[in-house]
Structures are given as C-alpha cells and as structure tokens.
Amino acid sequence: MLYGMNHDIPVSTLGPQGEVMAHAVDACVHCGFCLPACPTYALLGDEMDSPRGRIVLMKEVLEGNLPLRDAAPHLDRCLGCQGCVTACPSGVPYGELITAFRGWSEPQRERTPLDKAKRYAILKALPAPKLFSVAARVGQYAKPLAPALPAALRSPLDLLPEHVPAMQPQPRVTPARGKRRGRVAFLAGCAQQALTPNFNAATLRVLARNGIEVVIPEGQGCCGAAALHTGAREEALKLVRNNLRTFNPDDYDAILSNAAGCGAGLKEYPVVLHGLPDEAQAQAFAAKVQDISEYLAGLLRDGELQPFMPTREPLNIAYHDACHLAHAQKIKAAPRALLRAIPGVTLTEIPEGDLCCGSAGTYNLEQPELAAQLGQRKAKNILSTTPDLIASGNIGCHTQIQSHVRRQGSPVPVMHTVEVLDLAYRGAL
User: Fold this and answer.
1) DSSP characters for 343-374?
2) Residue 223 and residue 192: Cα distance in Å, rounded?
3) Can you tell me the distance from the alpha carbon of 385 to that of 377, in angstroms, rounded to the nearest whole number?
4) Using the 8-state DSSP alphabet, how is residue 179 labeled?
C-alpha cells in the first residue's frame, strides 16, 4: 500500500496556508501518474520539472533542507495548468499547493531589478482594463520591431493582435428579453475588455436572449488570479476582498465568468482565505460561481435554452480545453454540449488536447521560450484537424492560440465558445 509523504513542515509557524501546503504534500504518494500530464516534463524530461519533483522541492524548502534559490527555477517553470490534478489518482490539490507556496516564498525571493519591474508592470497593467488597452494600442505599433527585441520584450508584442479594438461600454444591467427567467451577476474580467471586448458583448446578448437579466456590479475588479499565481498574496487579498464586498451571492442565481482563469480564481477564494475570518463569506460566494458554459449547459439540460439556427454550411469546430476550465474547474462536457447543439456543427477533438497551450496566466510573459514551444505544439495539433473554426473558453488561450495559428500561416478564426453561440443565434455561422 502507498502512503503520503511524511513531512516536517512547521505548520504551526506557517499559519493557515501552511495547513494547505502540508495537506497537499501529504496527499502525494509519489506514483508518477502526473508526469505524462505535465507540459514542462513533456518538453524538458526533467523529474524536477514535473509535479512530483516540484512537490519534493517544495517540501524540502518548507522543511528548511533546501535553499529556495535552488528550487526556484524549477518552480518558476510550472504553468499552474493543473493537468496533473486531473491525472492524479490520489486527489493531490497541486494547484492549491503551488499557489500557496508562491505566496509564502515570493517575499523571500531575490529578483533582479528588471524582473521586479516586469512583474510590477504585469500586476498593475493586467487588472486595469483602460490602462491595459492603452498599453496594447501602443504595443501594436511596436510589433514590427519585435524580432529585434529580447525575448522578455518580444513575447508580449508577439501576442498582441494586429488590431486592438476599442473598448466597449458595458451596461450595469442588461435586461432579459421576454419573460425574465433568471438573474445573474457577471464578472467583466480584465484583459478581455481591452483585447476582445466582443467576448463580453456576446455573453450579454446570449444570456438576455435566454431570458436572463445580467448585472455587472459597480466596484468589481480583477479576480486576483494573476496576483495569486505570481505570489503577490497581499495584493491578491485586496482584490479578493473587494469582490466579496461587491458581489452579494444572495442577490443572484449565479455569479458568472466567461474567462476560465477568472472563474477558477473566484472558486479558489475559500482556499485563499482558509483559516481567516472571511472564509465562510468566501465559501458562500464561491458556491454561486459558474463558468458561462456551465450555466448555459444547465439551461440546455433543463430544456430551457433557446434553439440555435443551423449553420449555412457544415462547420467543423476544433474545441480547445482551457486548462483552468477543464482541470481546475472540471468543466469539459458543458462547452461541447453547447457547440454540438448547433445544427450543422461537427466537433473535433484535438491531439494532445489536455496539454496546455502555454498561456497559463502570465506564463507566456515570464517564461516566453517554453510558452512559445507549447504554443507552436498546440497550434500544430489544432491545425492537423483541418478545422473551419477554433473555439475555446479563455482569453489567455485565445490570444496564445491565435498568435501561433497565424504564425503557422493559417487564417482559421479563433473564437470564444460564447461568440460561436451568439453567431448561431443570429444565423451568421
């Protein structure tokens, strides 16, 4: 019989997040099922760049047996995609472990001034849609210079679309069309407001068409996932608590997100606040959080989703599982059911579908070389299915896949799942 690792992690001095880390470490039986599911292990073949290896490294650092600087390069290469969580037969909450560890270790890190500046810029620009939009607009004019720049500067420019659209106003309340059948709150997100405003516009239209009133509460902000996953725990706590104040779960049937990373971040709030006075509030909040595909699939299952118009011609859609939708939130069937409900659509599974595209929050900005390898691999696998359209449920995946699909010379459109549904309702597919 296999048992979890014995450990000497000083939980009493580490506090509630120490409990989270110790529990995850103890759950690992070292079986190795996670290795084939890990993107960095697939690329590098190094045990220390696998979930099993990283758990050992974190355990040794927490116990004081290994200097943080020796473990840091391997831990930094972790995407946090949680493919290992899906593969794990022991239920190791690796995502909780790596997030808590980064929050604990970041104040102890020795980073270069350039690295500190880059991380500061990421954490200030990404959660601020207007600022991010301005930066993106400036960046699109610098794209021709990208090949001559170092990787750290070239990567964000490569990811930008050729044209950055204007931000769209978002009404505080979008009324239901016809009889109101539900009322939801919507997290508007950050990057998508600047880069892909149609994601939100399509979401509001699809929900309204199905009799759902949508409220975008004033005062909401970034979900905090980017801060959490880069170790900026104090900044993340501010963002988390702001959203807890802003969204009253009792007022809504559900709290919706159309970004897989944001939705996963919102559902993480109870773990983030574990052992703190507002943990119960976080639990009540997280219980109402749903991805847009999760919510709409519920309407479909109950026979309450308005039918879609057929496509003009048979349409082959390649669907990409966003890691934080498929692995972190365990949502795989819902978006597939919705797309298959469109008459004329054939849904195609992608080779190595569970392997991360390389976006993973800020990963393609912090680890551009590995991210690019994964992006190229993902685009090649997708295009091997000769799709007419590529669908996914996350802004990071959309940006990464579109960039690499274009680099491989393909004009195939890349859309959010809800954009596809919106077009189907309008007979525009």
Assistant:
1) TTEEEEPPTTTTS--S-TTTHHHHSHHHHHHH
2) 13
3) 13
4) S
Judge if 11-108 and 173-297 fold alike in CATH terms. no
Strand partners of residue 319? 391
Instruction: Report which of residues 165 and 145 the model is more confident about.
Output: 165
Give which of 21, 47, 39, 38 is closest to 88, Cα–Cα. 38
Please list the helix, strand and coil fractions of the chain in percent, rounded to the nearest 5, in that order: 55, 10, 35
User: 11-108 belongs to which homologous superfamily?
Assistant: Alpha-helical ferredoxin (1.10.1060.10)
What is the maximal distance between C-alpha atoms in the chain?
64
Domain covering 307-425, topology? Rossmann fold (3.40.50)
CATH class as words, domain 173-297: alpha beta
pTM, 2 dp = 0.92
Q: Which tens digits make up the pLDDT trace of 24-37?
A: 999 999 999 999 99
Is beta strand 212-215 parallel, antiparallel or unpaired with respect to 173-174?
antiparallel
- Report the candidate in 394, 85, 102 with the shortest Cα–Cα distance to residue 236: 102
Name the residue type at position 125.
Answer: A
Query: What does the alpha-carbon distance between residue 360 and residue 265 come to, in Å, rounded to a whole number?
Result: 12
Q: What is the DSSP string of 127-178?
A: T-HHHHHHHHHHHHHHGGGGGGS-HHHHHHHHHS-SS-PPP----SEEPPSS
Using one digit for the tens of pLDDT, what is the confidence trace for 268-306? 999 999 999 999 999 999 999 999 999 999 999 999 999
Q: CA neighbours within 13 Å on the CB side: how many for 218?
A: 3
Taking the domains of the chain in order of start, what are their residue ranges?
A: 11-108, 113-159, 173-297, 307-425
